[in-house]
Design a protein that fits this description.
With 269 residues, the chain is an alpha+beta fold. It is built from seven helices and ten strands. A four-stranded antiparallel β-sheet has the order 2-3-1-4. It has a two-stranded antiparallel ribbon with strand order 5-10. Strand 6 and strand 7 form a beta hairpin. The protein is elongated, with a radius of gyration of 33 Å.
């Protein structure tokens, strides 16, 4: 029995069903929200810059203000607002719906390159088309297996280089963050006694390292169908001077090898 035959043989049931459908349609139509300008998700690009140990005022003055001065001229920019906090600054740029995200990212990157300079300790700005500070869709906690002697706090590098990269290669995952653990660092330990015996101060050492740490390219040369780059790397040393006016001798200088006054070791912070 098809629907037409059922409707003919049961007119009352068919009429009631039609009335119910019309009634529900009228109720739904009256409750349907109507907007002159419906909500549309707009494209956002974030620029995050980290400066370890800096206060919010320093971050705003040295980073955020300088970046906003250049980014305010980005093509198609609709709205921009910045945030300054301890250790980092963040600028969010909002573009109208339909904007090509890849093109907008390129324009933002080109504008950031026009910032004249940053303080020495500032990391490179990170440009992202997603808000990494928003609510996470999932959290994963890594713990060592029973009997594994490895300290999990020292595995942050592995998590950032391997696990984080694999997560972000999954379709639909915009970004992932790693929290916790300890960063690997290179510690330089200066011997104050050895520094003093050579009439040097910590300021002398810092200036010498900054002045002499220079690498220069010397071009390249061909040999047996291979190209070899050449360059010159200045060794680390600290220059000292001693005034011998009391003894009637002229001033003189000498070289102090860097490993004569300090040593280094790797560790975690």
């Amino acid at each position: 029995m098809n629907f037409v035959q059922f409707a003919i043989r049961n007119p009352v049931t068919t009429t009631v069903g039609v009335l119910f459908i019309v009634l529900f349609g009228v109720v739904s139509l009256n409750r349907l929200p109507v907007q002159l300008t419906p909500d549309v998700t707009k494209h956002e690009i974030t620029v995050e810059t980290r400066w370890s140990g800096a206060s919010p005022k320093e971050v705003e003055r040295e980073i955020v203000d300088e970046q906003e001065e250049q980014l305010k001229g980005v093509e198609g920019l609709e709205k921009m607002y910045g945030e300054s906090s301890y250790d980092r600054g963040k600028i969010t740029l909002q573009f109208p719906a339909g904007t090509n995200t890849d093109t907008a990212l390129l324009h933002v990157s080109n504008r950031l390159n026009q910032v004249k300079e940053y303080p020495e300790e500032v990391d490179e700005p990170v440009i992202s088309s997603t808000d990494t500070g928003g609510s996470a869709m999932a959290w994963f906690i890594f713990e060592p297996l029973e009997g594994n002697p490895v300290n999990i706090d020292t595995m942050r590098d592995f998590a950032e280089d391997v696990i984080k990269a694999r997560f972000e290669r999954i379709a639909g995952v915009a970004a992932s963050n790693v929290y916790g653990g300890r960063d690997r660092e290179l510690r330089v330990i200066v011997d104050p006694a050895k520094l003093a015996t050579r009439s040097l101060t910590f300021t002398d050492l810092a200036q010498a390292l900054d002045r002499e740490n220079r690498n220069f390219s010397a071009g390249d040369f061909d040999h047996d169908d291979l190209v070899y780059p050449a360059g010159h790397c200045f060794p680390f040393f600290a220059a000292g001077s001693r005034n011998a006016a009391d003894s009637g001798e002229p001033d003189y200088h000498w070289l102090v090898l860097i490993f004569d006054i300090l040593y280094y070791a790797t560790g975690f912070r």
